[in-house]
UniProtKB/TrEMBL annotation:
Family under the similarity heading: In the N-terminal section; belongs to the NnrE/AIBP family.
All residue ranges annotated as the YjeF C-terminal domain in the record: 225-500
Binding-site residues, K(+): 58, 124, 160
SUPFAM superfamilies per UniProt: Ribokinase-like, YjeF N-terminal domain-like
UniProt source species: Pontibacter cellulosilyticus
Cofactor(s) in the UniProt record: K(+); Mg(2+)
PANTHER family: ATP-DEPENDENT (S)-NAD(P)H-HYDRATE DEHYDRATASE, ATP-DEPENDENT (S)-NAD(P)H-HYDRATE DEHYDRATASE FAMILY MEMBER
Name used for this protein in its record: Bifunctional NAD(P)H-hydrate repair enzyme
Length: 504
């Protein structure tokens, strides 16, 4: 699904209004109804609801929600903030439509905000996508009061004060919502780790914005959901044989870290690869032969480190390198040889990223359009550099992808995938239980297997990251996110692929 900017969302609103021949107040009513339905399903009318409304259409939404909740027997109080002469016309219309018996207060000073305790529900409708400068003054004072209260806060469309698609200036106040209910499409701000404390749990609810407008609107930003992914899975044909599904090479493992090779190998095998060969330091030979009997194992001449490449490196049609390797000089030389001699796609993770990141010479050797990097945030910093905030980090990532003609999978909550053409995908699966050692090795195994099966590099990243997160979600529902291990993720890959297959 696409992610649109605030400006594009405004255009989508205007287009829909024109195309359907409705008024903007009608669209506001529709949005507020959708919000109210979500709210009713979430909260009983036992607690009083305090709705805080700013002067724009977000405030207008708040007024309609207050009216609808009042009709549905919720005890409601409305607080308007900001100069009324500046209010939007739909705000003014809906202010007049508030029933007389609904309590309405206008706030000019923060001390007019009532005491807020946990027995209250707050709806934040101060600002939405029309925010065009940091929030200060009376609005900031109100936000401060709401944030320091124990009341549960639900934001309409976006937490007030937060810019939806660019860095919020540091001096601006921002609501810390427990829930954010947004309209039609997710906003870029929801997907960035730096905004976790503001967004809370977020949901997107449809309000019938023009599908035609959305499909014709250009963007480089996407949020990948089940609908975007399941049809990409290729069916296995009746007359296929193991050669059809590729021969993968994994260069993983080091002394004390053979487990990384085992995890990557097991995940690779559970992701449909035809044949798998591993090369591991000789101390790991027996470990791999025992733990992963389906894989062929080559022993490096070094006991503890990767020091050489297998012969016939180009007979493997995807090579995964990095998990557990260590950063010995001899390993760095072997990776240089790999970059110089292999003619097939490379999936580069962990210590292989650290080695390449610290060497301009190796970076200059990267083959174009054949490399996927899968860094976690620290490895990303070593590869691409430090950034001031999450927006800069995404910009730096896309610049790196363009410069080196590579794909970068930045692992984390809502893993971000950058492509050489400048597209940016955010993943929708996965959970905090996956923040445990070895899950990255699992992802390397999955993506390498998919590349070997002739998925495009872009699809291998999208599908691999999605199915990895889905397996994590299935594992979490079984073992919980505290006890979950990387092996649990592998054990749930079959169910995750089946889930995608059944409805593809
Ligand atoms: N346009 C439409 O038809 C629809 C809009 N909807 C709602 O409308 C919202 C957008 O409405 P608006 O574009 O009116 O914008 P907002 O309601 O976000 O606020 C804009 C108003 O606030 C002022 N303002 C901006 N930043 C400020 C600051 N830092 N301090 C003080 N004042 C500030 C602006 O000058 C303007 O008067 C969406 O987020 C959504 O909630 C929904 O009702 C769906 C339909
Ligand atoms: K809001």
């Amino acid at each position: 699904m696409k992610i649109l900017t605030a400006a594009q969302t405004r255009e989508a609103d205007a287009y829909t209004i024109k195309a359907e021949g409705i008024s903007s107040a009608d669209l506001m009513e529709r949005a507020a109804k959708a919000f109210t339905t979500w709210f009713e399903n979430k909260f009983q009318p036992t607690k009083e609801v305090l709705v805080f409304c700013g002067p724009g259409n977000n405030g207008g939404d708040g007024l309609v929600v207050a009216r609808l909740l009042h009709q549905r027997n919720y005890p409601v109080r409305v607080f308007t903030v900001g100069a009324s002469e500046k209010a939007s016309s739909d705000f003014k219309t809906n202010l007049k439509l508030l029933p007389d018996e609904l309590k309405h207060f206008h706030i000019e000073e923060a001390n007019q905000v009532p005491d807020l305790n946990e027995d209250l529900n707050v709806i934040d409708a101060l600002f939405g996508t029309g925010l065009n400068r940091p929030v200060t003054g009376i609005f900031a004072d109100v936000i401060e009061k709401l944030n320091s209260s124990a009341a549960c806060i639900t934001s309409i469309d976006i937490p007030s004060g937060l810019f939806s698609d660019s860095q919020t200036p540091y001096e601006g106040a921002i609501i810390k919502a427990d829930y954010t209910i947004s309209f039609e499409l997710p906003k870029l701000a929801f997907l960035l780790p730096q905004h976790e404390e503001y967004i809370g749990e977020w949901h997107v609810i449809p309000i019938g914005l023009s599908e035609q407008f959305i499909s014709e609107t250009e963007t480089n930003l996407y949020y990948t959901t089940y609908r975007d992914i399941h049809y990409k899975l290729k069916p296995r044909k009746k007359f296929s044989h193991k050669g059809t599904f590729g021969h993968t090479l994994l260069l993983c493992g080091g002394f004390g870290k053979m487990g990384a090779a085992v995890l990557a190998a097991r995940a690779c095998l559970r992701s449909g690869v035809g044949l798998l060969t591993l090369q591991v330091p000789s101390a790991g030979y027996t470990v791999l032969q025992t733990a992963v009997p389906e894989a062929m194992t080559l022993a490096d001449k070094s006991r503890k480190h990767l020091s050489e490449l297998p012969q016939d490196i180009n007979k493997y049609n995807a090579i995964g390198v990095g998990p557990g390797l260590g950063t010995e000089r001899i390993t760095k030389t072997a990776i240089g040889q790999l970059l110089a001699t292999s003619s097939h796609p490379l999936i580069i993770d962990a210590d292989a990223i650290n080695l390449i990141g610290s060497s301009d010479k190796l970076k200059a050797q990267l083959p174009k359009n054949r490399v996927i990097f899968t860094p976690h945030p620290k490895e990303f910093e070593r590869l691409v550099g430090k950034s001031n905030n999450d927006y800069d980090r995404l910009r730096d990532m896309l610049e790196f992808c363009a410069e080196y003609g590579c794909y970068v999978v930045l692992k984390g909550s809502n893993t971000a995938i950058g492509t050489p053409e400048g597209k940016l995908y955010f993943n929708s699966t996965g959970n905090a239980g996956m923040a445990t050692g070895g899950t990255g090795d699992v992802l390397t195994g999955i993506i390498t297997a998919l590349v070997a099966q002739h998925y495009t590099l872009e699809d291998a990243c999208l599908l691999g990251v999605y199915v990895h997160g889905l397996a994590g979600d299935l594992a979490s529902s079984k073992v919980g996110d505290i006890a979950m291990t990387a092996s649990d993720v592998i054990d749930h890959l079959p169910q995750a692929f089946l889930h995608l297959q059944q409805s593809s």
